[in-house]
Amino acid sequence: MFASKRLGKELQKLHDHVPPGIKLIKADDFQEWLMDIQVIDANPLYQGETYRLKFMFSGNYPIEAPEVVFVKDDAHPIPWHPHVYSNGIICLDLLDRQGWSPVHNVESVCVSLQSMLTSNTKKERPPGDDNFVRYNTQRPRDINFVFHDNQV
Amino acid sequence: MLPLFHPLMQRLDSDFDIDQDDVGFESQDKDIIPAKHAYEVDFTVYSPEEIQGHQDKQIAEVSNILGQPPEATAILLRHARWNKERLIDQYMEKTDEVLERAGLGDTADAHPPRLERIPGFVCDICCEDDADLDTFAMICGHRFCVDCYKQYLQTKIKNEGEAARIRCPGDGCNRIVDSKSLDLLVSANLKDRYQELLTRTYVDDKDHLRWCPAPNCVYAVDCRIKDKDLMRIVPTVHCECSHFFCFGCSLNDHQPAPCSLVKKWLKKCEDDSETANWISANTKECPKCHSTIEKNGGCNHMTCRKCRNEFCWMCMGVWSEHGTSWYNCNRFEEKSGHEARDAQARSRQSLERYLHYYNRYANHEQSAKLDKDIFLKTEKKMTQLQNTTGMSWIEVQFLDSASQALQQCRQTLKWTYAFAYYLARNNLTEIFEDNQKDLEMAVENLSEMFEKPIDQLQGLKVEMMDKTAYCTKRRIILLDDTAQNLKEGKSLVRSLVLVTCTNQPLGQWKFNVTLP
């Protein structure tokens, strides 16, 4: 109830207007949405690529943060970034309990991720990516990330 | 008679004519306070009400000094993690900054929290814009509709267990929701939970307070043992709920082993380090490609499946060096083979050593469980004894105390083996092992008597009581002796500095491991 009312309004707004480089792909229900983002600035790391984001909402959204991951398919790679694991899991304080504010929404998350990529210059994965990708069985929202990097 | 030097006593002496008998205060004191053993620590158990009382008292005290209302003081104290002195210092120095950081910036005075209807308001959370929407904002001005605010607080309190540091829902706003605002917004049952969580943070924030880890236990224990002393003291405390636990690490009582050793031991028992030892004790590596090989038959001429290297299983030397002495390794002195055998012998010995201690450790753990089963049967025996022999309830209590002593002694014995595993060999260790042996024998003797049929139990009463007392005594001796040696000796700093040295002193004890 809580989530659907808000998501309905967000959807309406997204249909009216989306910021450049962001596209609504699928929003058939109020549980899972797909969004595409592109980096508009001329960052050679992300030139010409489109990334697909999967949003998962709990019934308590937007009080609780949505779970947001990059998904990989033939047309959509996982972007290089020191905070993005190769399985698409994103380590960003905005998406964590501590950093999330109910004032955020799907659009603002997309914009934040866009700018996170824009400012990045390192073609890197987070340290320990191999192990994390192989052994992690937790859902993104249950992982306790330690945020120590305020640079990117 | 000892002379009295106490000034008060001297004055009393001159004021009143105290007769000789009354001067013997000291010996009386000794009678009242039982001598403390080296392994015992001072602690106090507090009920939830007492903890609340402590908080209220400190809030009132600091509130007076700072001239802030109790609600604000409570927030300040929680923000400063109940470090009263630091809070007061900082507050006196830079009041505004302290208030700002605790989310109390600017006017913490006037404006009691209240609901408002604002024309043209749109809630940023639910996007509602009805004209009759009740809204709420703290002094920071981040205004949301009451329903969203409530939902937000409810989620924080109920699902995330937050209390003392719930922030305003606004993005990046650090203002903490104060208890007056909270009172206005949340339902009564949630308020109880909130209070409970607040009390929890008090105990969590205080270094010298710890919750009893027993299920459903509501007590907290106060013990003034510093973290750095945990190397030398094993602070076992006894909760009101009868649970014994270590104040240092909240695990079950693990005397005589210090927390750091316990952690190391448990990790060792869990991880694969001994699997690795089994592998190196029972297999060999191809000298060339290092594939692991277990030989299950056949002759000594090995050809590695992987790299086709040919070598001798006995001496691990290259097979071609064997010349014509096929199938018969007599090349004991070969250097290459010698080293391989040495390494294997070391692994084997290390594994055996570990298993020696582990088996005994595990055995006592297991036996303690079995003893517990026996105790349940004993309870039945106690009723039976009362019925068949006409003994009274008080007369069969010896079984109960015997069983409890057994449990406690096994717990101690169990940890003596983990402790001993890490001990380097010296005289102290030998004395320790003697103590351990004495306690073990006493325990096994007592344990054996439990298995006797009921009709014999009555006749064994005196003997059993003796043995129970003996077990308890042996346990005290062992713990006292170990704790004494742990406390004494060089300062703790030495063992911390010598982290790279393998033989580390902990008090008088020398260990063969590196401790953190």
UniProtKB/TrEMBL annotation, chain A:
Domain UBC core per the UniProt entry, residue ranges: 2-152
Alphabetic keyword roster: ATP-binding, Nucleotide-binding, Transferase, Ubl conjugation pathway
Nucleotide-binding keyword on record: yes
Residues passing through the membrane, by range: none
SMART domains linked: UBCc
Pfam families, alphabetized: UQ_con
CDD domains: UBCc_UBE2W
GO MF term list: ATP binding; transferase activity
Keyword Protease: no
Domain of life: Eukaryota
UniProt-annotated catalytic positions: 91
InterPro entries according to UniProt: Ub_conjugating_enzyme, UBC, UBQ-conjugating_AS, UBQ-conjugating_enzyme/RWD
Family: Belongs to the ubiquitin-conjugating enzyme family.
Protein known as: Ubiquitin-conjugating enzyme E2 2
Species of origin: Lophiostoma macrostomum CBS 122681
From TrEMBL, chain B:
Keyword Ribosomal protein applies: no
Catalysed reactions, as listed in the record: [E2 ubiquitin-conjugating enzyme]-S-ubiquitinyl-L-cysteine + [acceptor protein]-L-lysine = [E2 ubiquitin-conjugating enzyme]-L-cysteine + [acceptor protein]-N(6)-ubiquitinyl-L-lysine
GO term, biological process aspect, one: protein ubiquitination
Domain of life where this protein originates: Eukaryota
Enzyme Commission number: 2.3.2.31
SMART domains: IBR, RING
Protein name: RBR-type E3 ubiquitin transferase
Taxonomic lineage of the native organism: Eukaryota, Fungi, Dikarya, Ascomycota, Pezizomycotina
